[in-house]
Design brief:
The protein is of the alpha/beta class and 408 residues long. Helices cover 44% and strands 15% of the residues. β1 (17-23) and β2 form a beta hairpin. α4 (144-163) crosses α5 and α4 (144-163) crosses α11 (318-343). The two termini are 19 Å apart.
């Protein structure tokens, strides 16, 4: 319930359009979904997975819109995907991605869509897509998985503080031990929390006394997802057994809608910190609230992926980025939790209202062009803000979120 009865523009459920890329000769099957277009066009990563679907890109493109609303970026949400086997050789991989780039090339050239890295998609993969589009990748994105792990860790700390739990009493299960999950595990381990289980597509590694995050991180680097089949100080369980383990925090870092109604019924934790994009379908969110499980929404938790990597890409030092997440971002999440508690609402409900309040910022380009500076800005050729200015802007954005008079 909106306690102030304020009306905000509705973030649309449906995307603006979906492009499908089919090439039977090369075996290409892919999609690009553009959910919204902002002042600077739209942006979103390209997911490379053997069973990715058009429906997944639709959900993820909308998720990007929510994240841009929260971050204050004047970008619309988009998402691309290509069906790609895990064991594909390098030459065929490049061929498929260049073919996909040719299909979506007009949208890239017109700056309607800006591709980014995502699950199983590297900077080299992004370069192949740009080559196919007839463009050169000039702006190399920083590691978004690392900055996603940073913001997720900071959000997790805010939850732990809100619940009054000490680090040594905090047990964590990470669903999806990939690029984000493995780096998040290192942060939690250094802090003193106990990671008792992690999972990937091949199973769950479990140790009630705690897993060694650094050992698992290195094993993953060496063996990929097959690391879980190697010998280790853990018991190997089925993927679905992760959900029923007794933990303090459950962190979804995997695919969309992994928290199904059945999995939520099994959950035995105090809080869910959503690192993945929309791991819980909106229709299932109320079930978490009914069970008394505190659920932090992905579009507040994981915006480090776009904000932190953006700062890193313009040369901001890692220590300065960390300070933003341990400072202003952490305080933003703490305010969200406090408002939720005071209003007896789910943090997801409160954060959804906040995103809607910020939705209009995506469309500032609707205003008439009155100066040469504003024209250059719209064309994307204005001088970039300095790193110092970008930090200041991001801090200001985080400080402006969840500043309702309800917070006392």
């Amino acid at each position: 319930m909106n306690p102030n009865n304020e009306q905000f523009p509705q973030i649309p459920d449906s995307p603006l359009f979906v492009c499908e890329a089919n090439d039977p000769k090369s075996g290409l099957k892919g999609w690009l979904t553009v959910h919204t277009i902002g002042q600077r066009g739209s942006c979103g990563g390209i997911r490379l997975y053997p069973d990715v679907t058009k429906e997944e890109t639709v959900v993820l493109a909308k998720a990007m819109t929510y994240k841009y609303c929260m971050s204050g970026y004047t970008l619309g949400g988009a998402k691309g995907a290509v069906r790609m086997p895990f064991d594909i050789d390098d030459a065929e991989r490049r061929m498929l991605l260049e073919s996909f780039g040719r299909h979506i090339g007009p949208l890239i050239k017109s700056k309607i869509y800006q591709p980014w890295t995502d699950m199983n998609c590297s900077v080299d993969d992004l370069r192949s897509i740009y080559n196919g589009a007839g463009k050169q990748l000039k702006f190399v994105p920083a590691d978004s998985a690392y900055s996603t792990a940073l913001s997720t860790f900071s959000a997790l700390l805010a939850v732990v503080e809100h619940l009054g739990i000490k680090s040594e009493q905090c047990t964590v299960a990470i669903e999806g031990f990939g690029n984000v999950g493995s780096q998040l595990a290192l942060e939690i381990d250094r802090w003193g929390g106990k990671i008792i289980a992690v999972s990937n597509r091949r199973g769950t590694a479990y140790n009630s006394k705690g897993l060694d995050a650094k050992t698992l991180y290195n094993k993953r680097k060496q063996f990929g997802d097959m690391w879980i089949e190697q010998q280790g100080d853990y018991e190997r369980l089925a993927c679905e057994q992760l959900f029923s383990l007794d933990t303090t925090i459950h962190v979804p870092c995997a695919r969309v809608h992994s928290l199904t109604a059945d999995n939520i019924a099994k959950l035995n934790c105090r809080a869910v910190v959503q690192a993945a994009n929309e791991p819980c379908a909106p229709c299932n969110e109320p079930e978490l609230f009914k069970k008394g499980i505190l659920s932090l929404p992905y579009f507040a938790v994981n915006i480090g992926g776009i904000t932190g990597s953006g700062l890193a890409s313009v040369g901001v030092a890692d220590e300065q980025i960390r300070q933003v997440f341990t400072g202003e971002f952490h305080q933003m999440v703490a305010r969200l939790l406090k408002i939720s508690e005071q209003g007896h609402e789910s943090p997801v409900e409160v954060a959804s209202r906040e995103a809607a309040k910020c939705y209009h910022t995506l469309f500032e380009s609707a205003n008439p062009v009155k100066t040469r500076k504003s024209l250059l800005s719209k064309l994307g050729i204005a001088t970039r803000s300095s790193p110092k200015q970008k930090i200041k802007e991001l801090k200001s954005t985080f400080n402006s979120r969840f500043t309702s008079s309800e917070v006392t």
